[in-house]
């Protein structure tokens, strides 16, 4: 077996097991540790027949890093149904896959996370793959727990603000908040609160529910001053969906430090951000996950953003729990195979596995 990480590089090659379609690999020669910086990317497990004339494909399984982290919470073997590689050119493999005759690969996964660090809000726009807006030392991102298992519904409530930027020459601003979902569409506009830099929004008019299909994407919270002549920016906070799901496990308010919007053109906002004078937004998040479904291995190659290879009714993806908090180290052990494809005309194949990891 070859195992490939999310970046496609091979991280493990097991020894070939002579003449068997039900191999069991020795633990000390079939285990590798992979650095996992985040939940993105794929692991690729490739099974090959070792012949003197070359190597013949026997099947492939792909598992998303997010699912691998969830599997790491389980004890015992994880059963991966083998399929063809993406763009498979080997006719024998494609035909066997169509008949469900490529067999299964058994693996074990364990995860050791790095020490938790408190997220700090930068003073400039953050990249679209990470959260921006978590107030230093106020609400660190929690690890693991019940809120980390989409698909489901995320309820967002805008509670209040602290020390907001005053955009009015006389008196105080009339702040309101727009919330944008992972697809960029606005999902909520709170009412404007007259003349205050410490607003508290009424719950019934500042709450929205957002459909969350997976852990990707960003939530955007924009604060504006409602003026008769137009709207003036007061700051923005961005939170990744992955972090929002983790925050949904907390009780009480989550404090988001406001910064400028990406590519901010309003000089007042940029200057105030540089001085740390945009204030904070207080929100609450809760998540209700859909009923768990067992993953089914398709007979054709799956897209690179989802797992392919989970045997029907054998090892469903678990929800929540300890294994869902990178960065950290994922230990992959290739245990054995069941009912593998025989590529030899006489006797049985000599299977080995390559594993490709994220780095």
From TrEMBL:
CDD domains to which the protein is assigned, alphabetical: C2 (cd00030)
The segments labelled Disordered in the record are: 120-153, 296-329
InterPro entries on file: C2_dom (IPR000008), C2_domain_sf (IPR035892), Synaptotagmin_plant (IPR045050)
Question: What residues does the C2 domain cover?
Answer: 1-78, 135-254
- One Pfam family linked to the record: C2
Q: GO molecular function: any one?
A: lipid binding
Compositional bias (Low complexity) spans? Answer: 120-131, 296-307
According to the UniProt record, one GO cellular component term is: endoplasmic reticulum
Q: Show the PANTHER family listed in the entry.
A: C2 CALCIUM_LIPID-BINDING ENDONUCLEASE_EXONUCLEASE_PHOSPHATASE-RELATED (PTHR10774:SF190), EXTENDED SYNAPTOTAGMIN-RELATED (PTHR10774)
Q: What is this protein called?
A: C2 domain-containing protein
From which source organism is this entry?
A: Neobodo designis
Tell me the classification of the organism that encodes this protein.
Answer: Eukaryota, Discoba, Euglenozoa, Kinetoplastea, Metakinetoplastina
């Amino acid at each position: 077996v070859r195992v490939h990480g999310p970046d496609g590089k091979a991280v493990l090659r097991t020894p070939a097991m002579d003449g068997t379609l039900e191999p069991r690999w020795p633990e000390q020669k079939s285990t590798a540790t992979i650095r996992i910086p985040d939940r993105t990317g794929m692991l690729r497990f490739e099974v090959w027949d070792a012949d003197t004339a070359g190597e013949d494909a026997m099947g492939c399984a792909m598992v998303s890093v997010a699912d691998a982290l969830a599997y790491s919470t389980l004890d015992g073997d994880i059963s991966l149904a083998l399929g063809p590689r993406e763009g498979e050119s080997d006719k024998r493999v494609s035909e066997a896959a169509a008949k469900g005759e490529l067999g299964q690969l058994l693996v074990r996964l364990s995860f050791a996370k790095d020490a938790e660090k408190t997220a700090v809000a930068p003073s400039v726009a953050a990249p679209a793959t990470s959260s921006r807006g978590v107030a230093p030392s106020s609400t660190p991102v929690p690890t693991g727990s019940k809120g980390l298992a989409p698909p489901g519904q995320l309820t967002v409530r805008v509670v209040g603000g602290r020390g907001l930027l005053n955009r009015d020459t006389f008196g105080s601003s009339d702040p309101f908040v727009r919330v944008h979902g992972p697809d960029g569409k606005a999902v909520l506009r709170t009412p404007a609160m007259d003349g205050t830099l410490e607003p508290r929004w009424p719950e019934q008019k500042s709450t929205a529910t957002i459909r969350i299909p997976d852990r990707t994407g960003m939530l955007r919270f924009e604060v504006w001053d409602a003026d008769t002549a137009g709207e003036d920016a007061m700051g923005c906070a961005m939170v990744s969906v992955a972090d929002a799901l983790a925050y949904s496990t907390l009780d009480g308010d989550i404090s988001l430090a406001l910064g400028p919007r990406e590519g901010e053109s309003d000089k007042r906002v940029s200057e105030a951000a540089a001085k740390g004078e945009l204030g904070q937004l207080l929100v609450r998040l809760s998540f209700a996950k859909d009923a768990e479904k067992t993953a089914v291995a398709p007979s054709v190659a799956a897209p690179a953003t989802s797992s392919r290879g989970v045997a029907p009714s054998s090892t469903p993806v678990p929800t929540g729990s300890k294994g869902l908090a990178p960065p950290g180290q994922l230990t992959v052990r290739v245990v054995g195979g069941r009912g593998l494809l025989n590529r030899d005309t006489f006797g049985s194949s000599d299977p080995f596995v390559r594993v490709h990891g994220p780095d």
